[in-house]
Amino acid sequence: MDLDERKRQVLKVLISDYITTAEPVGSRTIAKRYGLGISSATIRNEMADLEDMGYLEQPHTSAGRIPSDKGYRVYVDHLMNAQKLTKEEIDLIQNSIYKAALGEIDKIIKETSKVLSILTNYTTLVTSPQAKKSSVKHIQLIAVDSMNVVVIVVTNFGTVKNSMVKLSQPITSEKLATINNILNDKLKGLTIEEINLNIISDVQRNVVGYNEIFNEIIPILCESLNIIDDGDIYLEGSSNIFNYPEYNAIDKAKAFLSVLDKKDFLYKLLSSEDENTKIFIGHENEHIEIKDCSLITTTYKIGDNVVGSIGIIGPTRMYYSKVLAILQCFRSYLNDALTSYYNDK
């Protein structure tokens, strides 16, 4: 970073002030409020240098400065102070998640999204656990009679799918048990997205003598796996954007709200499986629809497996340190709650 200590101080307090007030910040304001030990004229010169270097912008002649995307990036990476949550905030997070965990998985995720929106005052997105990341826990073939078999697939996420297979020839309970054992031996522990044509071909090579019946069962098994979908995405706080003066212009607000109606687009925003929390500021976003926003994303896990994503969208003038503290706390409690939930299941 090409900034000396004085420029770092000026940039830090200017961005902190702008995040709080949403008003361009002048040298006199910094001199009066922050006691940097330097004159207003010196601060003004430092601000001019920071503008020339691309860290600040001047929206109007003779007005104060505001941070650029580049300025926010330096602030987030090097200047801002880590923030601690209050006991009340931590209790709210913990209680909301564990209370929801007494219900169904969708209730946990929906409650997570709602409380995140309340605590951050931004728009929140949370994907439900992606079923294709789940693994096969058990396959059970049950004979209704000699010509009809029920195929049951159970995943480690607790998802259960069953389908009926009508055979072209009768099958004995011994043959059905053999095929059942082979399927479990070869497929148990594999994620749904790992069960491809090569895996199925390998299973076929192990059912010599049962090929005809197996060939009737396997399409139904594959269909059962394929209909386990990728879940849903929960959106909360879309109207929070109206709390920020950056979106007072109705056209800008409408454009933002229209983006939130596009489910496929929202999935793209949260498509990363990187376990690290990521911050995309303004034009760092690859999607033009949110070039005026900041997006903070992270993931959550069941056990050691990343199964879903969390996103916070707001103006570039975001309380980054507070949001990061909230996300870190939320992710920790959510991981514990979901892991316990599925272990119980």
What keyword list fits this structure?
single chain, 345 residues, alpha+beta, Arc Repressor Mutant, subunit A, Beta-Lactamase, Enolase-like, domain 1, 3 domains, three-stranded antiparallel beta sheet, 12 helices, elongated, Heat-inducible transcription repressor HrcA, transcription regulation, stress response, transcription, GAF-like_dom_sf
Number of helices: 12
How far is the first residue's CA from the last residue's CA?
50 Å
Number of domains: 3
User: What is the highest CATH level, the class of the largest domain?
Assistant: Alpha Beta
Shape: elongated
CATH architectural label of the largest domain? 2-Layer Sandwich
Task: Name the structural class.
Answer: alpha+beta
Going across the major beta sheet, what is the strand order? 7-3-10-9-8
Q: How many runs of DSSP E, i.e. beta strands?
A: 10
Query: What's the CATH H-level homologous superfamily of the largest domain?
Result: GAF domain
Gist of the model:
Helices cover 47% and strands 18% of the residues. It has 345 residues and is α+β, with helices and mostly antiparallel strands. The protein folds into 3 domains: 5-79, Orthogonal Bundle (Arc Repressor Mutant, subunit A); 87-130 and 231-344, 2-Layer Sandwich (Beta-Lactamase); 132-226, 2-Layer Sandwich (Enolase-like, domain 1).
